[in-house]
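Exercise 7 asks you to align residues with tokens for two separate proteins.
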Amino acid sequence: MVSHSVTKASIYVLLKSCMILLQAYHHHN
């Protein structure tokens, strides 16, 4: 069973990577 802190951390990393991808996409256009 995955602990709650690990789940929150993975979600945070996922959101961070999405933000970076969005910024890179906007800068590319």
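Second protein for Exercise 7:
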Amino acid sequence: MLDEMDILHEMIRENAKVSIEESNGRRQVTLGEPRDSEGRKVKISGLPDDAIVINADEFPAPDAVFTCRKGECKRADFIIIADTGKKRVILCCYGSRYFGGSVPHTGRGNRGTSRQPDSAHG
């Protein structure tokens, strides 16, 4: 029987997934916006073996349903879903255009928290 992560991998199209690479024995992903004229990127390393990274820009915009006047159409650029065996984590990664800054931010789920990546991660 398939577990939840296997089912997610089957459900999500390959063009919506971001490749996870291996470097120095650690799994990592580099995230960036193709529309970013400055070419800013953030590298996230130490991903667990059971992780999937989704490029949310591959999904249709919600403006066909919502009016988008109060921020309801803002959405994550990337979604990282991971299962460490001890807990499941969903990280929503937002580009700086939502925060008025120059660095990508990462929010955990819908708690409303965000953090800037430290210099060790790019």
